[in-house]
């Protein structure tokens, strides 16, 4: 059974930094591309960043986080991270870890990030 778990999140001031983590169990983590999404209540979930499987290591970012967020993974720990710097109030959202395994989508439970001005 695949499990996607995201501890953490937090409340912080604008300009601060926070690292989100997401642990995946029940699958061969190293071959799975991973994504981070975020969602504001009442709006559609939007992609923030992606990282390919370890064989390629390609990363992609949406324009509004480029230069501020970094996605990376540790395959020994079956964990993907989203390091966030220079946080803005508009980064306030619920952040979700995501992967697709054999055509099925798996989501973390979501972690709340609140950035005050």
Helix content: under 10%
Quick one: how many beta strands?
11
Based on helices, strands and strand pairing, what is the structural class? mainly beta
Any idea what the radius of gyration is?
A: 14 Å
> Low-confidence runs (pLDDT<50, min 5 residues)?
none
Query: Given the structure, what is the number of helices?
Result: 0
Question: Biggest β-sheet, characterized?
Answer: 7 strands, mixed
List keywords for this structure.
117 residues; mainly beta; four-stranded antiparallel beta sheet; globular
Structural overview:
The protein has 117 residues and is an all-beta fold. 0% of the residues lie in helices and 52% in strands. The chain contains no helices and 11 strands. Strands 2, 4, 5, 6, 9, 10 and 11 form a 7-stranded mixed beta sheet that branches. Strands 1-3-8-7 form a 4-stranded antiparallel beta sheet, with no helix packed on it. A hairpin with a 7-residue loop joins strand 5 and strand 6. It is globular. The termini are far apart.
In short:
0% of the residues lie in helices and 52% in strands. By secondary structure, the protein is an all-beta fold. Strands 2, 4, 5, 6, 9, 10 and 11 form a 7-stranded mixed sheet that branches. A 4-stranded antiparallel sheet has the order 1-3-8-7, with no helix packed on it.
Spell out the blueprint of helices and strands.
Elements: E1 3-5, E2 10-13, E3 18-25, E4 34-39, E5 46-51, E6 59-61, E7 69-74, E8 79-84, E9 93-101, E10 104-107, E11 111-116
Parallel strand pairs: 2-11
Antiparallel strand pairs: 1-3, 3-8, 4-5, 4-9, 5-6, 7-8, 9-10, 9-11
């Amino acid at each position: 059974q695949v499990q996607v778990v995201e501890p953490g999140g937090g409340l912080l001031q604008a300009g601060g930094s926070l690292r989100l983590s997401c642990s995946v169990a029940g699958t061969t983590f190293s071959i799975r591309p991973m994504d981070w999404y975020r969602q504001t209540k009442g709006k559609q979930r939007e992609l923030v960043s992606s990282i390919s499987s370890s064989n390629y290591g390609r990363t992609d970012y949406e324009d509004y986080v480029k230069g501020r967020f970094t996605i990376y993974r540790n395959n020994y720990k079956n964990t993907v991270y989203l390091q966030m710097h220079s946080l803005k109030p508009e980064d306030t959202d619920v952040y979700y870890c995501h992967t697709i395994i054999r055509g099925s989508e798996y989501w973390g439970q979501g972690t709340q990030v609140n950035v005050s001005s």
